[in-house]
Structures are given as C-alpha cells and as structure tokens.
Amino acid sequence: MSPPSPLRPQTQQEPEAHAVTWFIANVQVSGEGPGMSMVMKTLGKAGPGVALHPLLNLPLSPQGTVQMAVEFQVTTQTPSLTSLLKSAVTLHCSFSTASSEALTRVEWRLQHQGSGRLVSSWTVGQGQAGQKGASLEPQQLQTAGNASLTLASLTVKDEGAYICQITTSRYQAQQIVQLSVQALPKVKLSQASEALPSSLTCHVTGFYPLDMAVTWSRQEVGGAPTPVSDASFSSLRQNAAGTYSISSFLVAEPGSEGATYTCHVTHISLQEPLVASTQVAPPEQRTGFGILVASGLFLITLWLLVLQRQHATLPRSA
After folding, report:
1. Residue 245 has pLDDT above 70, yes or no
2. What is the mean pLDDT of the chain?
3. Domains in the chain, ordered, with CATH?
4. Once rounded to an integer, what is the mean pLDDT over residues 172-186?
5. What pLDDT sits at residue 62?
6. Residue 294 pLDDT more than 60?
C-alpha cells in the first residue's frame, strides 16, 4: 500500500467558515490483502491561526494532516480467489456504518467478458432475489454487517468479477471480488495393439481453463526417459458444461527390447503433472504372442467340436 502524500500547511489569518467535506477512498493492500472502500468526512474547523491545506482549503491538525472520520466502509478479505468446478464458495463482503445510517440495499452483480447480470440482491422490506444457487444471509446483513455471497455449485459461467454494492440511507460504496473457476483434467492412455507399429492415444478430458499442455517421454529397458516430440493432436472439444477435451496421438517405436511410453499432462489446476504410462513390446514379441493366442483359440474350438460330436453319437434312452 502506498504511503499518503505529505500535506503542506498554509496559515490563513482570517479564514472563512468551513463546511463539512466528504471523501471516498479506495485502498487495496498489495498482494492478496484485503480491499476497502471508505466514505470519510472532515473533522477540523477553520478558525483564527488554523493552517489550511494549500489545494483543498481544509483545516489542518497541529501535525499537518487533514483530520477525517470514516462514516461508511465496505471491505472484502478475498479480492481474488480460485475454486474448483461444482464446489461451493463464499465471496466475502462486509460493511460498517455510522450509528445513524440504515442499510437499504445489498446487490451482487457479475461482470464477465463484456456482459453483466444480477446474481443476488436484498432490499429492505422486499427481501432477497436473484439466481438459483446464490444466497445471502439477511440476519447477518442486519446484525453483523456481513454481506458475503455463497454460490452453492460453481459452473464455468460463474467465473468473472463480482461487484458487492452496499447502499445505506445516505451512502453507497462497493468492492470487487475476482473469481476464477478451474476443473481438474482426467487422463487415459490407450494402445492400438492390432496395428504395427503401435499407435498410442492420450485422452485428456474435463479440464478448464485452456492453460494445459501434453508432452510425451520414452524409456527403454535400463535407460533414462527421453522426450518425444513428434506427437499430433486432435481438435479441441468443449462440452455442454464448458470444460475442454483433447487427444494426443503418437506412433510408438519400441526398439528391439521394448519401451515404456508416458503421457504427461500439466494444467493450471494441478500442483504436479498427471502421468499415464504403457509398455510397448517389440514387434517380434507381439507377433509371437499373436500366434500363441491364435493357436490357443484353434485348439479350444477343435476341442468343442469333438465334444459336440461325442454328445451327438450317444444312444438315447427309450
């Protein structure tokens, strides 16, 4: 938070009568600190020998500052937060007023990608209105100055900038809470074993937002993993829920002793990459295994035919 600029006092021998002046200030603590909007009024009175601010023409204290009292304040402890898809989240917003001020209305609006909508509101004498799944606590509003908004089950469409606007009988101020929604990806690795060489497919589904990357590595027996760079990708797909899916394809080259292929997925919602691995046998082992399976199926079929003929030649009882 930046320090206030110093005030330079100016003495006025015969000052004019001074009326109360109101100011509004927005304060944002650096990093992830709270944000505050404050309505303040001046306290000092002009008089003989009182120094005045050179630009504002307001009386200064002996310390050279303009004395003010906070009349109304709106605060959020969470100016930005991130939550997972389908989870519940509470957007913090609180307020405090002078004892003579009466709360008249609380309104939460969402702004995202150039459009806005009313999420929830509470008006004295009318109660609460808004979208399904969004709620305020009227009792907390009137007794504790708590105007926090709860969203029951997040969707992709709930992402954006939420404006908490508090209105009293005299003042109005607001705070903004930036909400980001994330969805964890799921990874599945499949191998088309009927083809030579093998074709590998890494399916990545259900992720949001688009901050995602897929990479491949290959490891021979007794060796270290090495990156593979010749993978191809499907087109990006988006489902009805707003999450994305994509597939990555790779032709495996197992070598003479086979190799392990691994699909690595990184995403903004993950603390560490997701991985899926599969072993690819060399062509000669796969061919031998295929012959063995085919021979086994032939013997089982032959045995079933023999049993069927034996059953057909058995004499039937009278």
Report:
1. yes
2. 84
3. 10-181 (2.60.40.10), 186-284 (2.60.40.10)
4. 96
5. 79
6. no
Say whether pTM exceeds 0.85: no
Residues 6 or more apart in contact with residue 195 via CB below 8 angstroms: none
Which DSSP string do the residues of the chain spell out, in sequence order? -PPPPPP--EE-SSPPP----EEEEEEE-TTT--EEEEEEEE-----TT-EE-TTT--B--TTS---EEEEEEEEES-SEEEEETT--EEE--EEEE-TT--EEEEEEEEEETTEEEEEEEEETTTEEEESTTEE--HHHHHHH-B--EEESS--GGG-EEEEEEEEESS-EEEEEEEEEEEB--EEEEEEETTSSS-EEEEEEEEEBSS-EEEEEEEEETTS--EEE---EE---EE-TTS-EEEEEEEE---TTT-EEEEEEEEETT-SS-EEEEEEE--HHHHHHHHHHHHHHHHHHHHHHHHHHHHHHHSPPP-
Q: Would you say 285 and 258 are in contact if contact means Cβ atoms under 8 Å apart?
A: yes
Residue 284: predicted pLDDT: 66
Which range among 208-217, 226-235, 275-284 shows the weakest confidence by mean pLDDT?
275-284
- 202, 263 in Cβ contact below 8 A? yes
